[in-house]
Amino acid sequence: MSKLLIKPKETPDQDGNVLRITPESAEWDYVGFEVYQLKKDETFIKPTGNKEMAVVLLSGRANAKTKHKSWDNIGERMSVFDETPAYTVYAPNDDEVRLEALTDLEIAVCTAPGKGTYEARLVRPEDVDVAKRGSGRMEREIHGIIPEEKPADSLFVIEVFTPAGNWSSYPPHKHDQDNYPDETYLEETYYHKINPADGGFAVQRVYTDDRELDETIIVNDGCSVLVPKGHHPCSAPPGYELYYLNVMAGPIRKWRFTNDKDHEWLAK
């Protein structure tokens, strides 16, 4: 199995955790990512420490609190494939996020180094930038929860909905060089959901120009893929919709990338 593929646990831990990626486990410096599944009336509490944190409500409803703010009855969609924008709680370092599950709840916890620049806030569906990207079999829908244009110290958080039979993160691109303004170094995780989940799969490549890294990975529902470097396109087979949640962070909070020169003509 590829070391870039992170599979979910068969059963949640006592605190509801089903998937965990830390900078230490990924052998990088910036991005952390976790998924939790809570039953109705269960509680999630997580201090931010020296990180900033974005908690994305993948499905379900909750009451949410940080140390200084609270929001009741947030969340609308019962599945990511409702394709409605998510509710997300952003908290700076030296804070905490507390959720009380009002229904069964699945959340994604996205972290990166924080500086305490911005206050805790709720990102509502109407705050999410929604746009189509690509054309033909490269078309997908982008939900910018925390894109470059929205405030954060390090984090980018983006949802992508790829129709069955389409390619995504395509043409292939990379962002592994600290060479601003031409390209920025950004670590990235993909969290994949497949519809229908049973038997469903997607395909993701991660490769460098010199093919020193060259992997083709089969992902199932609930799997994550690490992208430490290289190009990273993915494909949804006919009959299976693909959702993924991207988390990126690096030394400069700018998204500058380089297309694979062999396929760059597709972007024109």
From TrEMBL:
Gene Ontology MF terms in the entry: 5-deoxy-D-glucuronate isomerase activity; glucuronate isomerase activity
InterPro entries: Deoxy-glucuronate_isom_IolB, KduI/IolB_isomerase, RmlC-like_jellyroll, RmlC_Cupin_sf
Keywords tagged on the record: Isomerase
Any GO BP annotation: inositol catabolic process
Record-linked SUPFAM superfamilies: RmlC-like cupins (SSF51182)
Annotated EC: 5.3.1.30
UniProt-listed NCBIfam families: myo_inos_iolB
PANTHER family in alphabetical order: 5-DEOXY-GLUCURONATE ISOMERASE (PTHR39193:SF1)
Name of this chain's protein: 5-deoxy-glucuronate isomerase
Record organism: Pseudogracilibacillus auburnensis
